[in-house]
Amino acid sequence: MVCLNAPYIPGFLAFREAPFLEEAVRRLQHKDPSLLPQVIFVDGNGMFHHREFGVACHLGVLTDLPCIGVAKNLLHVDGLEEKHLLKEKVMIIDLTHTFAPGIELS
């Protein structure tokens, strides 16, 4: 368990939680490298973040491991209404099964 001192600010979850998640991965890597996961599922957005780089993306960059954001809800930020863009992204992913160039879902 960790004690978070920073407040939750919508859209900035990674800056609050990613350092603790990265530390947990590093501890596991140090303690028993054979237990290091091949992929991490993160409770938060990844590419569906309104800036297209949520906590899952941050953790992936910090740990050099593939991370998938599995948010309970789409991120909603006051004053930002881009639902049509998110729906467009989902349709593109559904059609191509591709999240990013060179990375395909099977």
Mind sketching the topology for me?
Blueprint: H1 13-31, E1 40-42, H2 55-63, E2 67-69, H3 83-96, E3 98-100, E4 103-104
Parallel strand pairs: 1-2
Antiparallel strand pairs: 3-4
Helix pairs in contact: 1-2
Give a short account of the largest sheet.
2 strands, parallel
Mean pLDDT: 76
Helix run count: 3
Q: What is the succession of H and E elements?
A: HEHEHEE
- How much helix, percentage-wise, in residues? 25-40%
Structural class: alpha+beta
Computed over alpha carbons, the radius of gyration is 15 Å
N-C termini distance: 35 Å
Descriptive account of the structure:
This protein has about 110 residues and is of the alpha+beta class. It contains three helices and four strands. The protein has helices spanning about 15-30, 55-65, 85-95, and strands spanning about 40, 65-70, 100, 105. Strands 1-2 form a two-stranded parallel sheet. Strand 3 and strand 4 form a beta hairpin. The longest helix has 19 residues, at about 15-30. The chain is flat. It starts with 12 loop residues before the first helix and ends with a strand. Mean pLDDT is about 75; it is low at about 100-105.
Q: How would you describe this structure in keywords?
A:
4 strands; two-stranded antiparallel sheet; two-stranded parallel sheet; 106 residues; alpha+beta; single chain; 40% helix; 3 helices; flat; disordered C terminus
Short description:
The chain has 106 residues and is an alpha+beta fold. It is built from 3 helices and 4 strands; from the N terminus they run H-E-H-E-H-E-E.
